[in-house]
Amino acid sequence: xxxxxxxxxxxxxxxxxxxxxxxxxxxxxxxxxxxxxxxxxxxxxxxxxxxxxxxxxxxxxxxxxxxxxxxxxxxxxxxxxxxxxxxxxxxxxxxxxxxxxxxxxxxxxxxxxxxxxxxxxxxxxxxxxxxxxxxxxxxxxxxxxxxxxxxxxxxxxxxxxxxxxxxxxxxxxxxxxxxxxxxxxxxxxxxxxxxxxxxxxxxxxxxxxxxxxxxxxx
Length: 218
Hints:
Layout: H1 2-54, H2 67-101, H3 108-162, H4 173-202, H5 208-217
Helix pairs in contact: 1-2, 1-3, 2-3, 3-4, 4-5
Keywords: Actin-binding, Repeat
GO molecular function, one term: actin binding
InterPro entries: Spectrin/alpha-actinin, Spectrin_repeat
């Protein structure tokens, strides 16, 4: 009976120590988790805004870049890998150990730790989504860049053809052959552009209708 009392006292002391340690960890990581979640949501919003901007420009050189968005994604992932992830893994181990010592229903700190771990799982999911979204935005930018370049080439070529003087007999044979070669090259480029566009459409991008419209224009 004395042994049981001693063991119970040791357990209570260990629970108190583990609870205090867990409290410090939760207090340390929770604000960082919340800040990163907010940043990830802001990045998703800004990525959507950047994508909308692609649809309004008239020239390839006016397309907004994505370097800032890519840097923000990398910074968030670095913040996770270089510090936060290790802390959360430690928190998970401590929370599991505390549950072994004390049922969660009797230990509010254990429940708080589980909420923190759920927030961590949510952040990981958010970061996966933003990484995929930024990568997709890069492909969308390439699509609009190539589309605008092709539109520009088409207009320049049309202007060249119609700029021939009315009294002339049209393009000379060497010019026609050169133009045919260029057109063949552009057709191959269009096939690649169409494939890239259809891939974005297949992914059900929110600009799918506009992508399809641009392809039909060409």
